[in-house]
Amino acid sequence: MTATTAAALRTLAGLLLGLAAGVTVAALIPERGDSLLALADPIGTLWLNALKLTVIPLVLALLISGLASAADTARAGGLAARSLGIFAVMLLLSATLAITAGPALLALSPPPPGLAAAIPPGTTLPSPPPLSQWVNGLIPPNIFKALADGSMLQIVIFGLALGFAALTLSPQRRAALLAPIDALADAMLVIVGWVLWAAPLGVFALAFGLGERAGVAGVGTLVHYVGFVSLMCILSLLLAWLLAWVWGGVPPLRFIRALGPALAVGLGTQSSLATLPLMVKASGELGVPDRVTRLTLPLAVTTFRITSPMANMAVVLYCAAILDIDYSTGALIAAAATALLMSFTVVSLPSQITFFAALIPIGTVLGVPPEIYVPFLAVEILPDLFRTIGNVVADVSAATIAARGERKTD
């Protein structure tokens, strides 16, 4: 068992114990509920604030360094650039599928009521701005004010501008700029690790409030949520499988037979990186040339996650449905574009670690408050299984597509 999996299981245990304790108090000793909530709520809020503290610097640093890394890879040669182009097309299709399939599935099977009680009392739910106001606010007139206000979309746009500007500098000056940014990202991840070490206690406190306020209905919502996000990840997997057939020219049954061992290891490790040797073997069985395998697959496991925009949009859409947030089509498209951009910032890290960093910029576009994500962090280990195998399928699918393009250029 990896350290990440063990930590996720401890957090899940904290969630289940907290829910059980809260439901028990509400059912058996409701007169003690307020006094116990007065103890639990500050602990949960303190832990949540510590986690949110790292989001803005982490997102900004990862976005700039990720952009620079992808651009440097594209300069390395035609095959690398073509592989990145394939990744971008697959991510765009995944994001498009997310905003079409997600709302449709939620309309067919809406979330059970109850989880809105997870938001601490007094939290103000932001409303999505009108489209004209949203467009006018894309470029921050003062980046320091945007940082202080937590205006995530403005911060992401500034990060993109700074990242592209860094690419125009000389190699020495670019390295001098990126070195402290990379160090900032590493330091923020260390702090995130510290905060997640205390996750069982923080999640227990927050889950106790959920259980006491919402009762059994909150538990039913969590089960429904896991099923919804897992199904959305499976849609990404099916998309990648279809692309391997239509674009890569690999028959579906042959593709799955070759990929079976890699999928088994991915489920066991929750790491697409750990499956890399088996993905290399599967690609060889599918006729992918060695020169393509050696470049495209390592590039894929470090810069490409097809399930990232799909799964992150699924979480945000689910929370928006719980809170009955009314958003426009323009805001939905903007959220999908943000999800696509964020997929390049956190792809090489476990989803439990980057959960808030990935979701907050997307949710800000739709007016979803970050507090609602907390119970879902604790059960992330379950849909993360489908994130992993979806990414494994997509990585090998991209290799088969790149190989077909390589043969055409020979």
Top CATH class: Mainly Alpha
Count of helical regions: 18
Please state the structural category: mainly alpha
The radius of gyration over CA amounts to 22 Å
Quick description:
The protein has 410 residues and is mainly α. The protein has helices at 3-28, 33-53, 55-75, 78-108, 131-136, 143-149, 152-167, 171-197, 199-214, 216-246, 252-269, 276-285, 290-303, 307-322, 329-342, 355-366, 374-378, 381-409. GO terms for molecular function: symporter activity.
Would you write up a description of this structure?
By secondary structure, the protein is mainly alpha-helical. The chain has a single domain (3-409), classed as Proton glutamate symport protein. The protein is built from 18 helices and no strands. The longest helix has 31 residues, at 78-108. One of its GO terms (biological process) is dicarboxylic acid transport. It holds the Pfam family SDF.
Keywords:
cell membrane, membrane, transmembrane helix, 18 helices, Proton glutamate symport protein, 0% strand, Na:dicarbo_symporter_sf, mainly alpha, globular, transport
List the helices and strands and how they pair.
Blueprint: H1 3-28, H2 33-53, H3 55-75, H4 78-108, H5 131-136, H6 143-149, H7 152-167, H8 171-197, H9 199-214, H10 216-246, H11 252-269, H12 276-285, H13 290-303, H14 307-322, H15 329-342, H16 355-366, H17 374-378, H18 381-409
Helix pairs in contact: 1-9, 2-9, 3-4, 3-7, 3-8, 3-16, 4-10, 4-13, 4-14, 4-15, 4-18, 10-14, 10-18, 11-12, 11-18, 12-13, 12-18, 13-18, 14-15, 14-16, 15-16
GO molecular function, one term: symporter activity
Protein name: Cation:dicarboxylase symporter family transporter
InterPro entries: Na-dicarboxylate_symporter, Na:dicarbo_symporter_sf
